[in-house]
Design brief:
CATH architecture of the largest domain: 3-Layer(aba) Sandwich
Distance between the termini: 67 Å
Number of strands: 32
Helix content: 25-40%
CATH superfamily of the largest domain: P-loop containing nucleotide triphosphate hydrolases
Shape: elongated
Mean pLDDT: 93
Structural class: alpha+beta
CATH topology of the largest domain: Rossmann fold
Strand content: 25-35%
Largest sheet: 7 strands, mixed
Low-confidence stretches: none
Strand order of the largest sheet: 2-3-1-4-5-11-6
Length: about 650
Amino acid sequence: MTRTIAVLGATSTGKSTLIDRMCMLEGEPCPAAPPGELRVAGFTHLGETWQAIDTPGSVEFLQLASDALLAADAAVICVAPDPAEAVLAAPYLRLVEAAGTPALIFVNRMDEARARLRDIVAALQDYAAHPIVLRQVPMRGDDGSITGSVDLVSERAWKYNENAPSDLVEIPAGMIEREHEARDDLLERLSEYDDQLLEELVEDQTPATAEVHAICTRLLAENRLFPTLIGAASHGNGIVRLMKALRHEAPRTDAARARLTAQAGLAEAPIAAIFAGQYRKHVGKTLLLRAFESLPASQPLGGKPAGHVSSADGRDNKPRDGVDQGEIVALAKADHLVPGRLVTASGLHETPAWNRPLPPLYERILRPVNSRDSVKLSGALATIAEGDAALAIEQDTATGFPRVGVQGPLHLRLLRQRLADMFGLEVEEAHPAPDYRETITRSQDQAYRHKKQTGGAGQFADVKLTVAPAARGEGFIFEETVKGGAVPKNYIPAVEAGARDATERGPLGFPVVDIRVTLTDGLHHPVDSSDMAFRIAGKRAVAEALKSAGPVLLQPIFRLSIRAPSIYTGSLGPIISAQHGQILGFDADPEGRGWDIFEALVPGAALGAIGNDIRAATQGVGRFTAVFSHYEELHGKAAERVVQDRATEVA
């Protein structure tokens, strides 16, 4: 059986170095990963086969961290040794808790630590519903530097050696009291979940080390807390202790399989998870699959043969005869399979709700530099999106070009790079224009006669109608009060169709909404009248009426829900005010400890810039969703600029 861990963490926490060091414990090389992709690193340790999934550090690739948890027995959250940077771990703590994945915290770069470890843990605890429990405390030299660590379960001390195994030493006399205090705190926290341990502590008995280890193993498997270890991966310190904890305490593949089955509500346990995928030049779609049971080469996946199976790290592209339980492999030539699915022999199933694609934070329109590449661009984006759940694609109605939703500027830059490298496509980007509308402010009566004589039958239609404002949000309303058959019933639908035609582009250049058109009278000719004649008359009558009915510009207003750590809530108000928005309030986020949900109304024109502002104000960890709320009138110079830009664009 191959065991798998997902290593998560913010940029500069040293998580990739940590994985490299895990591989080096028995001298195995560790492959690099392309930017913005998952890396699967396989290694052995004390006779066991392991795989570590390395996730990109930027929070813009949080979706990949979510995908990695689909394949993980346990997670390691790598954090920096600075309380001020604890907030950068908040998205990963929140994600792991939502996923229900057992996880350990590894405080890395302890050689650089200037703060007390208890302060680092306290800062992290602000963002975790699970208790964060210290399993080690650092030993310090006379100059204050970290020289080793003391294990609070076994009460053994280890002195670090540079890029070499640590030495077992006596606990320094000066820290014995502090070690006892930290161990007592650990036991007290553990006793909250174990009655026998609680009874022993009440009776002032010293629990056996094996008993404490067993409790730690059970509580990690039950996902009750976050054990916290320390080290410095760049110096090879703390790696063996971390691997010991994972080896003895992390649950195995069957537990991950059972968890996903329950979360997804499946009647049949999946045999595998397809958790990632990318398009490879000259290869095509390549998927990463983790097997929850041993799969022979003949095993169908999703009702069809698996395709070409090879090593996940790219070191061995030879076809495989099968897949061992827990192993991650790469699949090619399996077009019926897609990423983000749990797989049974006969079908594909949705993953649990916590793994649903993240909503985009940035939207841009992409135009090919070469106009002949328009069709090719659409196909290339669809191919890339199949392996990138965080990428959303639709057609921009105003320009006809693809409109992409991404997680930020880095994600967008990576997308453009992939288009260039894989498909030879150079693109330009532009901000989408808000979907402005226009309406009228007063009622207007209008008559229009359409008369045209040709060689044969002519065209004749005469209409009299009233165009009036409707309530905001009512759209287009058509009524008729014609009496005496002045306009025959069979022509009235044509008048309505013409009136609707006139609303496609009003006098200000935008679609017209919230008007009421009432046909009051008219004339017809027994020979020359037709549906087309009345449609033309209806359109031109309404178009003329709109010019005289006080047209006014409407701007879209969106309801913005910002989820951000509570320490940043105060900085969000000025951002909303600067964009002429309206603050609705904020409250604690029930789905994330230490997070708030900040609600506001903002103009659609602000959405292009507000993502950068929120990102800057929250160190990149804040996220938001924008949902259309309503239209409201826009006046003054701002409206004049919009109308002028529209006229220039049309011209």
